[in-house]
Amino acid sequence: MNLKQLAHMLALSQTTVSRALNGYPEVNEETRRRVMDAAKRHGYRPNPSARRLATGKTGMIGYVLPTGASVDIDPHFVEFLSGLGDYARSHELDLVLSPADADDQETTYRRIVANRQVDAVYISSPTPADRRVALVNTLGIPFIVHGRSEGLDFDYPFTDIDNEGAFHEAARLLIQLGHRRLALINGDDRETFAIHRERGVRRALAASGLELGERHVCSVAMTEENGYRATRRLLEDGDPPTAIACSSLIMALGVVRAVRDLGLSIPGDVSLIAHDDVFPWLRPENFSVPLSTTRSSIRLAGARIAERLAARISGLEEGARGEVWPVDLVVRGSVAGAPA
Amino acid sequence: MNLKQLAHMLALSQTTVSRALNGYPEVNEETRRRVMDAAKRHGYRPNPSARRLATGKTGMIGYVLPTGASVDIDPHFVEFLSGLGDYARSHELDLVLSPADADDQETTYRRIVANRQVDAVYISSPTPADRRVALVNTLGIPFIVHGRSEGLDFDYPFTDIDNEGAFHEAARLLIQLGHRRLALINGDDRETFAIHRERGVRRALAASGLELGERHVCSVAMTEENGYRATRRLLEDGDPPTAIACSSLIMALGVVRAVRDLGLSIPGDVSLIAHDDVFPWLRPENFSVPLSTTRSSIRLAGARIAERLAARISGLEEGARGEVWPVDLVVRGSVAGAPA
DNA sequence: CAAAAAAGCCAAAGCGCTTTGGAAGACTCT
DNA sequence: AGAGTCTTCCAAAGCGCTTTGGCTTTTTTG
């Protein structure tokens, strides 16, 4: 059932039927009702390919997925996706993932924009002066950045959490508890979020005349194993920290294992605070010692970004507003006063 | 730069240019070369929307993503995606995720097929007599099932791993080590994979005249917390098992925590084997006691399914061949002889 | 060497929608 | 009543590609 048939059946022109269906004003309300009714009754759905060709609108949002044998997609991604999908569903938006060589995403961005394959894109895990953001900005497709870049010479719309504030608070708490030697087990410090977190910790330390020792900060891919290794290195060192801030729950698993392997305890020998993106399958309160966390649902962020993308597509949102969400600090059993 | 312009520039008809580009035989080889060359030089890329409208081919594969506030997308999904993306990239295939109400996926399947939004779809986590498989089969769109359904009255193409064989082997090993009371902490037993795993364990037990006690099998969502709870329940029971088979590494984290909380040890008091889908961020050899696993890379499965989908789209693969991959049993420190 | 076959190309008709530029009729004013 | 203004609808022109059917020109064949 296509427009032509429907129009013929109603003894109307395609123009009128199309307009009635798309809510244009120049059509009699009763006619519109008739059309709507017939469309529903016959299950008419406009062919998206045709509509795309005519309008350029696709009803899809895009994401360039970096791939490659040595590239691991972050497990955070799936939670983010849950949120995004949740919103997208209610608006009949689909998401298209365009796999790209991790070292050459530019080609793919250019392709999806040139081909008008999607109405908008989002960018995640931005780095300082992120080239993708610059590219997408000049290409002129609506977009939202999940996270922030820094050092770009233009503004852009983003939704981020207050990573600096979160880790500042976490560090401040530890300092108040008497800790003097903090360590930070961070994610890849080429990404802005990690830079912000380190900044937060440093700022809290500086406020008390303390520093983050050079060997007390490390930046690695967020796996259990890396958490373990980093912790061993920190604690077997000459000047071990009494408190650790950690950028992910998954790494925290490794931290806990390392502490135990060394015959130490949490929080007796070392306090621990980790960032929690709120995975349904791994919860900080269920660690052997319930974990204190800085908490922010990445799923909610996904939904919010879908919402903003939809708004930009339909022209409801414009400009370059960045929004920064506060992060909860949730204190549980894994922090205590510094050992004597 | 569109076809018309390119044709005009070459003083050829659109027909000829189109045919030259798409490899049709009725065009002189030298002409073809000229066209190809000019196309490349001017960066001509056919507009996909137009091509879609004319041919019905989209260059995309589809996946219906169940969403909803209470629906968690499996973290396995992201690993699968890595593999899929890896292959798709090299073939300029995009993946479109269509979010759907988890309780009504049928509407979405019908929509993407009726609208010809994708060239093929894949289905994951099938259940026995899976309605999605039946639906997609009658709708007549090319598809591959990741996993298997059972009890359908037609054949269909799938790629699955030998879940029954894997858990049969695992259980057999435990039995050989003298264990008599095995327990199975399984995934949701509405899904075929879980059913197959249970079947494998039961078959191994039966071969030695043993049984899987009713209270020694549980089927839950694969979270850390559920692994913990199940283990506590099992071990605090009157008739505790001496060995546990577990359907996921994430649950195994909970198992390990529970065993420790009870003051017991692995493998001294209880042996443990878990299934490992090969996540880069959580590896069985890095558990406090290195974990024995049944191992199968879900990422490889993703790549394989992309490959088969591509083959079906281009007509290279037909029929309903199902393939079943063997699973490795990797023995590490978490298994030992049954306690006296 | 003429007839038949093959090769190489083209014009034009879709694919199914949106949108431009009117046109016909109904209403409002003076 | 005639001029102007809405309201409501339509015919037709795209959007950029593929593909059908046919027309030349060249090659093959008996």
From TrEMBL, chains A, B:
Residues 1-55 form the HTH lacI-type domain. Keywords: DNA-binding, Transcription, Transcription regulation. This is Substrate-binding domain-containing protein. It comes from Mesorhizobium qingshengii.
